[in-house]
Predict the structure of Chloride intracellular channel.
Amino acid sequence: MDLYLLAELKTISLKVTTVDMQKPPPDFRTNFEATHPPILIDNGLAILENEKIERHIMKSVPGGHNLFVQDKEVASLIENLYSKLKLVLVRKDEQKSAALRAHLQRIDALLERRGTRFLTGDTMCCFDCELMPRLQHIRVAGKYFVDFEIPTSFRSLWRYMYHMYQLDAFTQSCPADQDIINHYKLQQLSTKGLVLSPTLARQRKDDDAAAALKMKKHEELETPTFTTSIPIDVNDLNNSE
């Protein structure tokens, strides 16, 4: 998402290639073996792992340093949000859901207090590129698996999400709802032991594990959907700014 934003600002030229890690193309296997995306290739140099990619963007990509601001309050506030979502999906109890809602309420309170369009000001930064994808996962996976919804009372948070949905940098980098859901289905299958080591004793288990990693045929044929609606009045949001 950082790179999409820089491309939108026309500071870089960006080409995105998606890879099916269950059936990666031969040239991908040759160059990267079992490395999982994201992989950044800049003038022939391949940078792997998120932290190294972020450092490269900050130091070597034109305009990249402008995205990386220092804000300890925001950094500490958003860092554990994703882990709380995963606990909700695993435990599926009200206590974990309440903890996630309380965390979202703290983010809502920060946005209300600051009164800015984004987390640290009226322009996007690296923290927005971290928070908004997590919020999207909460919306889509939370609703699908445990009927969790972000309360409409968190008006500043919804205003923030509304502004993010207007940006090509987010909408073009956001996975479809089906892909988000399938991601967590695979995680749940792995947790249950269906995705096991390739040295399984019985071939049947290998076949079961391989089958578990694939989307159902009807899911593959579905038209991709993207949840970008706002459950409160947009005009009211704009008038409150």
